[in-house]
Structures are given as C-alpha cells and as structure tokens.
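Task: encode each sequence below as structure tokens.

Item 1
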Amino acid sequence: MNEHERLIEQHIPRLRRYARALTGEREAADDLVQDTLERAWAKRHLWRRGSDLRAWLFTVMHNVFINQVRGRRPGPHVALDGEAMELPERAVQADRLEIRDLEAALKLLPGEQREVLLLVALEELSYQETADALGIPVGTVMSRLSRARERLRRVSSGQPESAILKVVK
C-alpha cells in the first residue's frame, strides 16, 4: 500500500459517519463512501500535496452526493437486507430517545443547513474548510450554521415550526 492509499484509508471512518448522517441509511451511506473513494482515487492527481486531504475528500463526497440527489429518480427504495437504520447502542433509555429526537430534528433541516452543521459540529472542520468543501463563501457557512442551530433549538424545545419566521419591519 502506498502513502496516498494510507492517507485516504485513515479518513474512511469520518467519511462513513458523514455519509450516514447525510443519507440516513446505512446502505446508501456505504454506496456514497464507495463512490467517493472511487472518484477520489480516479482524481487523486488533483489533490495538492500539503493541502488538507480530509477537506478535499469531503469536497469530493459533497459533489458525489449532489450528483446522486440530482440524478435520483422518484420511486420506492427497498433495502436488500430489510434492516432498519442501526442506532448506536446506549446504556440508558433516555439517551436513545435523545438520539432519536436529534436524528428526527436533523431530518427537518434543509439539506444546505444540515451539511454545514454536520461538517462543523460532527466532523470538526473549520468554517473555511467547510466553505472550501461545499464551494460556498465563509459568510454563507456562518449564516447556514446559525440558522441550523436556531432551528434545532426551537425543535428540541418544542416550539412550533412557524415560530422560526421573524417579523421584520
């Protein structure tokens, strides 16, 4: 295994976690990671040595995901093994309920806000790395993150969805 393969391999767990959060399904996440790794390997000559490989891989994953969403045809999706999405096992029932509620709240976020929130909060990318990965300005990252956090606060506190809109004079 060469150096480039080792560098990419160490980022696979983070790619899987982000893909799982984006897609919400284990099978779809595995497919997304596989497609990302194939694209990254084919385009490895485009990565600049010395730059952040993790951010570059997330950029590749973002582009692959967007292409998949655009190309997706509406229709039923049937999992081959029939398994439901597996949640991490927790020792306390309350923890499982919190995870379920957080997962449901994340699904309520628009895709743009969810992507930014996951990259900054879950993957611990900086605002600049997130902006580079998504191909948007840093200010857009900050505003999407702010709106995502506010929406999550409202949903988790039980405030109605309509309360998110503010009256501006």
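Item 2
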Amino acid sequence: MSLPVALDTNVLVRLLVNDDPLQAQQAAALIDASSACFVPITVALELEWVLRGAYKLPRDAVIAAFDGLLAICHLHLEQEDLVRRALDWHRQGLDFADALHLARSEGCGALISFDRQLAVLAGQLNLQPAVKCP
C-alpha cells in the first residue's frame, strides 16, 4: 500500500474553480491516480478563505465545493468530523473559520472571543462550547 499524497490549497482551488484548465486537469488526474489523498485542516481553512475572498464565491457555492470534495471516496480531510460540523454551522450562518475554531474547541468550557456577533449567533444556535466575550 502506498502512502497518501497531501494536497495543497492551490491544487484544490484549480480543481474546483477551473481557472487554469491545464492545472485543473493535472489536479484531477493526480487525485484520480492516487490511492489516497489527504487534506490538512489548515488547507481546508485556507481553501474556504480563498474561495470566498479571492474568488468571491457565495456561501452556498463554497459549501457545495466542500461537499464535492467530501464525496471523493479516497480523499480524506484531517479531522473530517470537525470539518463537517463546521460546515453544518457555516450553513446555519457562522463564518467558516469561526465555526472551525469552535468545533476544534470541543471539550473546552468556552471559546472566548471579542466577536460579539459570533457569541450571539452561537448562543442562538445553542452551540457548544459556548462563545463568550471577555
């Protein structure tokens, strides 16, 4: 059995937005030819930021992009259960990065933040751990 290949953000961006057809084709071929692909959680965080910020994709398109990646059977996201939870919370209105921070804070008494909007929305959704402002 061969070791998985880890994928960088730019490979996934090319695959998802096809803004460089040659690189998009190379990315797809690499993923198809690999026995297993690994996406670090830091790449997942950066991917959302690039799709939203640089490519101006709306929330539903970003979520659909992640759903597409998650559907690739031999592509595995680091801490996939937490990424899925963050995506669910993102669907409910949380910023993806905030949702991922909160999901990664599992087992803590609270996530402390100066972001009052995050605290209010997380409270309305009854998310755990609670988000509290200092």
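Check on item 2: Residues 5-78 form one domain. The chain has a mean pLDDT of 96.
End of task.
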